[in-house]
Amino acid sequence: MSIIQQHTSASLSDAWRTINIDALDPDSSQNFDTSTLHPPLPEISEPEARQLNSQVRQLLRGGDPEGALRGCLETPVYNGGDAAKDAHMQTVIEVLQSIKASEMTPMLQRIYSSPGGNELLDVLMKYLYKGMSGGSSSSGPKSQSRSLTPQATGFSQFGSRPGAVNESTGAAMSVLLSWHEKVVDVAGLGSIERCMTDWRKV
User: Fold this and answer.
1) DSSP 8-state class, residue 35
2) Which of 90, 123, 125, 141 is 20 to 30 Å from the Cα of 154, by its Cα?
């Protein structure tokens, strides 16, 4: 066998393709636990979420809508069951609907200029998108669980007229869209990008 044939058979072997290059790289994800990149999030149960929501509603009834909004945004339910997330989502929508349109921008500016305000508006953006996507149980029609009482006219007393659910859903969507516009005006388009790329979901 010539020297050229020996060199060719040794150098053209494809055994190098089976080497795991990532295992040799100290910065590779195979050499450390990637879960350490995500800090642990506190788990919030449904009773804890409802207790928090009652505190927020007390602030709202006391005439402090900004404090109520801050209370919702400072304690988002990232790690919790669907019931806890839905309960908190309902409270957020309730607070947003109670704030006048003329108060939206000044309130958002005060929150944004405060320490950690950028993060709070990003949390608000997450709840806005969840509300617009129908992620909360409050955005859909609810089943009528109470019994129907017959009236003297022969008709049944059925709570609300047909189409009222769609009208309330449309009103809630209008409020969420108005808030979305104001948040973008104050925090910029970067708030949308951070909301879409954040691994923490409400």
Assistant:
1) G
2) 141
